[in-house]
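Please produce the structure of this protein holding phosphoric acid mono(formamide)ester.
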Amino acid sequence: MKQFTSVNDVENIDELLNSALKIKANPFDQQEIGKNKTIGLIFFNPSLRTRLSSIKAAYNLGANVWVLNAGADSWTLEMADGTVMDGDSQEHITEAIQVMSAYCDVLGVRTFPKLVDRDEDYNEIMFNKVKSLSSVPVVSLESATLHPLQSFADLITIAEKIGYDAIAKPKKKVKVVMTWAPHPRRLPQAVPNSFAEWFSKVDWVDFTIVQPKGMELDPKFTEGATIMYDQDEALKDADFVYAKNWSSYENYGQANEGDKDWQVTMDKMNLTNNGKFMHCLPVRRNVVVSDEVLDSDVSIVIDEATNRIFSAQTVFHEILKNK
Ligand code: CP
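Below is the modeled complex.
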């Protein structure tokens, strides 16, 4: 693996999943891989799970790690080219990324969208700029449109819960439903885009997306998914319910108001096939999902967060083993 920016950087999803399950079973077996290697992590936006799981993944591999909160820990960075830098910005991104990539063997980067200009976000202007300036392989810690480390952790979690066996794949397809859920803020589409992109490619999953009208994701990520608009109907017989809010792609960055009854409650979970509740976290309790669901055995959100370690560790392992 030369970089990890989307599922398209993965040659074989099943093989990567197998590697992750093996790594999780013996997380400290590959410490030679990381010896004398450094993983750099740059955050242009806040994080709890991605930051800490990536650090833990690096340690598990015997690698060194540094973390930079760009702009907060460092000089204020100028992003635009051709600017006369006589304002508040003290350092240009051009030098900053070249310097930081000289200090590591793999560079993880988080760059959220601004949700103003769809073309700017969907062309990944910021993330691609970092990638083009980096002298080492880049790993997405969530870009404007995708969050592949999260989706991979979600895949590991579902695989574990069904007792996945790569040789004898599930005889009956596993029904995974991603449902839009309410939220007071306008959120990016990175998590649902990425989840859709991954799960449309898993041949043992029957994948459905359910959302209010007007909240359809970019079709380039949802090809192969069943698209529905009736949440109760979609949840019937679901084995896994993946809840997430996202703002509109069509009416770019706009929230969907007045759909509070899309909150995932125990009544909704009771429509499923003893389904498990999933969310990438952080989650707003009693907005996205009720306490009753989140505090019950139905919820596997902590398993997902735990598996963020092994998705990152597997990806770092794949990249470092070629170095
Ligand atoms: N799920 C996730 O990426 O969490 P953080 O934003 O806290 O890293």
